[in-house]
């Protein structure tokens, strides 16, 4: 089976390079068209209903996000491409959507294509794109949401609703304000990188906490914090100095 694929890219060299990689090394895909501007991309996607779209973020006529806003049906898997660390990369990660940095690496391309094909069977592309658009529209931390893939489907959780994260081998459990526990098959390190700019701190090898959900901190037994759900989380000796400094800055 071949998956209908469209490439949206306004730089001719980047377009030809990606086409060559896809044709030679991603034989599951069939490129059915390319576009170099927002208008043509919208028309092409609406006309052909592709299953996978490689979407350049920045084009001379607008952005890939403009394309997503204007198309009628978003039931395809999008893989963003960008030549630099774009401001929207974090929003893309929160929405569990893939992206590739140019010049595109072959291994990363093949990994993204494999994930795209797997995701197509789960039929959750439109909800991910909707979440991305919402996150891009939100200017403050309060409104940001993160996409969490579980064994039962995908959960969309506002960052402000997360109290803490706990590691369990290759899995991570999210504890939320409504006393819900959500387990995902990603390790804690991935979320440490994603959440570090949003008032979350890895206080221990096994825990990431929402700094806004700390009720109190005590020096007893080496030091620990008590969270808003009454969980007692030990402060790692290696993290104590950084944590105390961070909390002091927040109180200034």
From TrEMBL:
Transmembrane as a keyword of this entry, yes or no, is: no
Record-linked Pfam families: LytTR (PF04397), Response_reg (PF00072)
Give the 4-aspartylphosphate positions (modified residues). Answer: 56
Q: Which SMART domains match?
A: LytTR, REC
Residue ranges of every copy of the Response regulatory domain listed in the record: 4-117
From which domain of life does this come? Answer: Bacteria
Q: Where is the HTH LytTR-type domain?
A: 146-249
InterPro entries named among the record's database cross-references? CheY-like_superfamily (IPR011006), LytR-like (IPR046947), LytTR_DNA-bd_dom (IPR007492), Sig_transdc_resp-reg_receiver (IPR001789)
Q: Which UniProt keywords apply?
A: DNA-binding, Phosphoprotein
A GO molecular function for this record?
A: DNA binding
Task: Fetch the PROSITE patterns from UniProt.
Answer: HTH_LYTTR, RESPONSE_REGULATORY
Q: Spell out the PANTHER family in the cross-references.
A: STAGE 0 SPORULATION PROTEIN A HOMOLOG (PTHR37299:SF1), TRANSCRIPTIONAL REGULATOR-RELATED (PTHR37299)
Query: In its UniProt entry, what is this protein called?
Result: LytTR family DNA-binding domain-containing protein
- Species lineage: Bacteria, Pseudomonadati, Bacteroidota, Chitinophagia, Chitinophagales
